[in-house]
Amino acid sequence: MIRPSTASSQENIRKHHTDMVSELSEMFSLKSKEWRSICCQVKMMQYLSTRDMGDVKEMFGLCETLKKKGIIKYGEYSTLQDILVKCDVEAGKTIDKYTKKICGESEGQPQAKRQRTDEGVGPQQSTGSDGAAAGSLDLSSFITEESWRRELKTEFTKDYFKGIESKLAGDYANKTQVFPPKDRIFHAFNVTPFDKVKVVILGQDPYHNDGQAMGMAFSVPPGVKPPRSLKNIYKEITNDDKIKNFTTPSHGNLEAWAKRGVFLLNATLTTAAHQSNSHAKYGWQKFTNRVIQIISENCSGVVFILMGNFAHKKESLIDETKHSIIKTAHPSPLSYKKFENCKCFSMADAALLMNKRDKMDWSL
């Protein structure tokens, strides 16, 4: 039986959620240009199927549909924020305001009775900072892109993948902060469909500082200053006289590349906050090695850009008779002199053309 104070807190959480959606509804009317842009982004990012989109006629419909699919939960609105803030910065502030209120209500509940209303987690289950009940994490549910789900369905059932789920569930239960957020672990997969992959850029593990990791190698969310490695990548493209129409952006968000077929894959997909490469032994590399092999086996004419010695070790996973491999130093400041003037991006374009594919648009 839930104590009255807990029931009251749950009611307040629902009210905060409803109030947030109401405020967002006032920002985005159904007929506005901004709303149409939101719907397009949802489609492109493939959070929702065409059938689901039929329920999205206004803000309440969008939020309810995302919640039913488990993409957002009470107090966990990173996906919603990512969609809306691109159209109106004030939307992000509104979401932040209500997220704090909801988190405050959750923290105010008695520990033994604390529940997640949206997930049905009972008082006997331990939940972590990212909302996962210990031992119950289903990572595959966060890959929403159908072609990747089809290609990887066998991997989801293997013992090593269950081991990754178990380790992460333990982290969440122990309130260990893990980057990126759960709904961004497979962001590269959800934005770049399997059958659209043209170029693979391999990184090592996610950024480990606050607010940087977004589930794509080298990329950071809008509003986050580009890290030094990414700045060096920008510098390399700018200095490559064979690449036209590239202006160095002030942001570090590489989603535009991903949507054009650049698969930004980290070898390890999660890390503990402020601890570089801390999940290297979780089993992620078995998974991402298999991802590379699946691309190699089932695609043709893909260009693999392997940056640094770590990435070079993946060369044996790639069929060089079907694909192109470009090896460079890592763009880190520590090895930039070796990376400088490597021309890897124009070389990728040349390889694509040789394979009778369109070269990349590297603009951002």
Automatic annotation (TrEMBL):
<feature type="region of interest" description="Disordered">
    <location>
        <begin position="106"/>
        <end position="135"/>
    </location>
</feature>
<keyword id="KW-0227">DNA damage</keyword>
<dbReference type="InterPro" id="IPR002043">
    <property type="entry name" value="UDG_fam1"/>
</dbReference>
<keyword id="KW-0378">Hydrolase</keyword>
<protein>
    <recommendedName>
        <fullName>Uracil-DNA glycosylase</fullName>
        <ecNumber>3.2.2.27</ecNumber>
    </recommendedName>
</protein>
<feature type="active site" description="Proton acceptor">
    <location>
        <position position="205"/>
    </location>
</feature>
<dbReference type="Pfam" id="PF03167">
    <property type="entry name" value="UDG"/>
</dbReference>
<dbReference type="GO" id="GO:0004844">
    <property type="term" value="F:uracil DNA N-glycosylase activity"/>
</dbReference>
<comment type="function">
    <text>Excises uracil residues from the DNA which can arise as a result of misincorporation of dUMP residues by DNA polymerase or due to deamination of cytosine.</text>
</comment>
<dbReference type="GO" id="GO:0005739">
    <property type="term" value="C:mitochondrion"/>
</dbReference>
<dbReference type="GO" id="GO:0097510">
    <property type="term" value="P:base-excision repair, AP site formation via deaminated base removal"/>
</dbReference>
<dbReference type="InterPro" id="IPR036895">
    <property type="entry name" value="Uracil-DNA_glycosylase-like_sf"/>
</dbReference>
<dbReference type="InterPro" id="IPR018085">
    <property type="entry name" value="Ura-DNA_Glyclase_AS"/>
</dbReference>
<dbReference type="InterPro" id="IPR005122">
    <property type="entry name" value="Uracil-DNA_glycosylase-like"/>
</dbReference>
<comment type="similarity">
    <text>Belongs to the uracil-DNA glycosylase (UDG) superfamily. UNG family.</text>
</comment>
<keyword id="KW-0539">Nucleus</keyword>
<dbReference type="GO" id="GO:0005634">
    <property type="term" value="C:nucleus"/>
</dbReference>
<keyword id="KW-0496">Mitochondrion</keyword>
<keyword id="KW-0234">DNA repair</keyword>
<feature type="domain" description="Uracil-DNA glycosylase-like">
    <location>
        <begin position="190"/>
        <end position="352"/>
    </location>
</feature>
